[in-house]
From TrEMBL:
One of its GO terms (molecular function) is ligase activity. One of its GO terms (cellular component) is membrane. This is O-antigen ligase. Its main location: membrane. It is a multi-pass membrane protein. Residues 1-22 have a biased composition (Polar residues). It is found in: Membrane. Residues 227-361 form the O-antigen ligase-related domain. Residues 1-30 are annotated as: Disordered. Coiled coil: none annotated. Keywords: Ligase, Membrane, Transmembrane, Transmembrane helix. InterPro entries: O-antigen_ligase-rel_domated, WaaL-like. The chain crosses the membrane at residues 49-65, 71-87, 94-112, 124-141, 148-167, 195-213, 220-237, 243-260, 267-287, 353-373.
Length: 443
């Protein structure tokens, strides 16, 4: 992950995302403070004292998608500075408290136990950095006028990456015979191919969220649809089965949610945790048939999901030997005979941070999603459910636990409270100015 612009090399592989918005209250009076800059859209205001922090978070949002290396080095530090320079009273919710505890637990794990700090220091810092981005986004973004630039900055980073990938694939020396010829994969030089594909998935999630609760501008909505198509094409070029499946599941969820949003949210809330817990732990038995089918999807069959079915039992056994505190961040990757990571969210966090880390990490994600889904409006549940079901294949088969972009999008979802669409005969009239209605309180 050292460079963004360089050569683009196709890779052959073999076996082995009518009510005005409410405003945050300041102090005990609930009045907006003076010295703010008026915004023309929706009469919202941005305090001048908050602009530096907002700008810094926008920069983090862009870099998180554009340059993984820069994000890994500077993202957490920039997020911490954004929190400090955005002077406003902190109002932590359960999600914020759990995120802070998770970051502290990851950093503490480098100081305790038998793991070599030279191995655990960098992975622990990456955990803490991603969670700091989550905390900073929730601290800075408290109204619609603040959410839009952050979301658009991250989308811009994802789109820049996608265009670079597509351009490089077009100019590459080896061409595919078909769009689903997954035996030839395209990636960016110095950046893991799966990381690039997962970035597109996260960008697609954010594009759908903005389409549902963003401005009513037809031009912007058309641009979001175009961006989704670009992301989909870029994912196909990467040849990532997990990312392709993620797009399919997300699109299917949105279609089904139109007929039963509450039912779909309930299905996701119940089924996703069960799948996350059972699939990696039962990979060698009941999941074997399904794994073989997935392995042969679009060709590039390896017989073991590119080594995942082989490494999952090893990771589960290693976690069982250190159940409470884990082995330490990054230790399993160095110590197991295959010399690869678990490629599964539960097993990665379990081996890195133990049961304590799994509870804190999973609790943070669940609490953030619950903030969006608890509203009476169904749209919050649809967006939260869509994000979960779309990320499920990534969580099950990849390494995305330290992604600053994923935690940023989760933070933005958690700050949204939305009103239902007001249905009128013959068309859908939206509650605020003919566009998707949105309220940004302190979720």
């Amino acid at each position: 992950m050292t460079s963004f612009t360089a050569q683009f090399t196709p890779v052959r592989t073999g076996p082995h995302a009518t009510q005005q918005p409410s405003f945050p209250r300041h102090a005990s009076t609930g009045l907006r403070t003076a010295g703010s800059v008026a915004r023309r859209s929706g009469g919202q205001r941005l305090q001048t004292s908050h602009l530096p922090g907002l700008g810094l978070i926008c920069a983090v949002a862009f870099v998180a998608a554009w340059s993984p290396r820069l994000a890994a080095i500077y993202g957490g530090l920039a997020a911490a500075i954004a929190i400090l320079i955005t002077w406003r009273p902190p109002r932590p919710r359960v999600a914020d408290i759990l995120a802070g505890l998770t970051a502290m637990w990851a950093l503490t794990s480098t100081l305790v136990g038998l793991a070599d700090p030279s191995i655990t220091r960098v992975p622990a810092y990456l955990y803490a950095s991603a969670l700091l981005v989550f905390l900073a986004a929730r601290h800075v973004v408290r109204e619609r006028a603040q959410l839009l630039p952050v979301a658009l900055a991250h989308l811009a980073g994802c789109a820049t990456t996608a265009v670079a990938l597509i351009t490089g694939a077009r100019d590459g020396g080896v061409q595919r015979d078909a769009i689903f010829d997954y035996n030839i994969r395209y990636g960016l030089d110095g950046i893991n191919i799966n990381y690039t594909s997962y970035t597109m998935v996260t960008g697609a999630i954010l594009a759908v969220i903005l389409f549902r609760v963003g401005p009513a501008s037809r031009a912007l909505r058309a641009a979001l649809l175009g961006t989704l198509l670009v992301f989909a094409y870029a994912i196909l070029l990467t040849g990532s089965k997990g990312a392709t499946l993620a797009l399919f599941l997300g699109a299917s969820f949105l279609v089904l949610a139109r007929f039963g949003p509450q039912l779909m949210w309930t299905v996701v809330w119940v089924c996703v945790p069960v799948l996350i817990l059972l699939i990696p732990l039962k990979a060698a038995s009941s999941f074997q048939a399904g794994a073989q089918w997935l392995d042969g999807l679009f060709g590039r069959e390896t017989g073991d999901l590119s080594g995942r079915l082989e490494v999952w039992p090893i990771a589960a056994s290693a976690w069982a030997e250190h159940p409470i505190a884990g082995m330490g961040p990054g230790v399993f990757r160095m110590d197991n005979p295959l010399q690869i990571g678990p490629h599964n969210l539960l097993l990665t966090v379990g081996t890195d941070l133990g049961l304590v880390g799994v509870i804190l990490y999973g609790g943070t994600v669940a609490a953030a999603l619950a903030l969006a889904a608890k509203q009476a409006a169904q749209t919050g549940k649809v967006l939260a459910g869509f994000a979960v079901i779309t990320l499920l294949p990534v969580w099950m088969s990849g390494h995305w636990e330290q992604s600053q972009g994923a935690w940023l999008v989760l933070a933005l979802i958690s700050t949204i409270t939305v009103k239902d669409v007001v249905r009128r005969p013959g068309r859908h009239r939206l509650a605020a100015g003919g566009g998707p209605a949105g309220e940004f309180g302190r979720a």
